[in-house]
Amino acid sequence: MRKISLPATNTVSIPIPLGGSGKADENGEVYLGGIGPDEISTLGTARENGMHIIWSTVCLEKKLEDTITDFFFGKTNSPTRRRNVFVNEVLQSSSFQFSFKKSLINTITKETEVLKGKDSSRLQGFLKKIMTWRNAFAHGTLKFDTKDGALLCYFSGGHQTIILNEEFWDEVESVFKKCTEYVDKIDTAL
């Protein structure tokens, strides 16, 4: 199998100092920063990481579906017709969005008492962050700012910007790992 190549673009923004805040050189020129191979590589890495976030969210959503199905139908190695209809026509329909699955998982955690108090709240917070990141990468714009580096700009109740630095990527990895552990814990207890 080959790796496909599809057209994609990046937006580069260069902050322009206003009101004389920039220092001019002896020729009266103000250095605005530059975009070179390192910056282009940074944007490429951000785009690849965004693709991982989108794909990992799809995988996590499948785990949520499995947990919901196991809650309602029990665990089984031989699926029934009703179970298949539920999975294929209800859980995987476009009407049954991630936000509703998130809400249903919250109900299941309360019903089963597998996660209590702060753990249940943390899971809901993790799922909310993951959905926000997924939507931001799916619908937002990657930019490179010569001052702040790689940015993800998106709209969610207003214009938002995430600085794609190491702290952000560390948080993404941690949230996905912890969220997956919580969902696995719920499913194991069913």
Q: How would you summarize this macromolecular structure in one to three sentences?
A:
It comes from Marinobacter manganoxydans MnI7-9. The protein has 190 residues and is an alpha+beta fold.
Which consecutive residue ranges, at least 5 long each, have pLDDT under 50? none
Count the E strands: 4
Radius of gyration: 22 Å
SS-derived structural category = alpha+beta
Strand order of the largest sheet: 1-2-3-4
Number of helical segments with 4 or more residues: 5
Principal-axes geometry comes out as elongated
Helical fraction equals: 55-70%
Tell me what portion of residues adopts beta-strand conformation: 5-15%
The major pleated sheet works out as: 4 strands, mixed
The end-to-end distance, rounded to whole angstroms, is 39 Å
Q: How many domains comprise the coordinates?
A: 1
Question: Order of helices and strands, N to C?
Answer: EHHHHEEEH
Provide an overview of this structure.
This protein has 190 residues and is of the alpha+beta class. It has one domain. Strands 1-2-3-4 form a four-stranded mixed sheet. Strand 3 and strand 4 form a beta hairpin. The longest helix is centred in the first third of the chain and has 37 residues. The radius of gyration is 22 Å and the shape is elongated. The two termini are 39 Å apart. The model has no long low-confidence stretch (mean pLDDT 90).
List the helices and strands and how they pair.
Blueprint: E1 11-13, H1 37-73, H2 81-91, H3 98-112, H4 117-139, E2 141-145, E3 149-155, E4 159-163, H5 166-189
Helix pairs in contact: 1-3, 1-4, 1-5, 3-4, 4-5
